[in-house]
Amino acid sequence: LVTEETLGGDIAAFVVVDAGTGWAAVSRPDFAGDKLVRFDPADGTIVEDAVIETEAYTLTGLALTADGRLLVVDRTLESAGVRVLDAVTGVEAAGSPVSTGLAPFSICAP
Asked: Which residues are CB-neighbours of 8 under 8 A, at least 6 positions away?
């Protein structure tokens, strides 16, 4: 797979979509926040760094849906909710983040 050193921080959550696409929520070691990174699980390289980037520890969970969406828990104060992205391209869906009322902590998908 991929190492925390390659990703540039501590892995808070990850999902593997297919042989060429994986996602990791990474807490940066300099206490500067979190980032969502797309990586290639086959060779452990970063495909896209900081698809989402926050200034605090707010990306706490990832889930993959059966219809190809990546759900990202985001506890950012101004826009807490669940971000919905295409699991392969990383394009964020319209209307995202979906508000959850209170800041979400984790997520799972059937």
From this structure: 26, 28, 29, 35, 37, 49
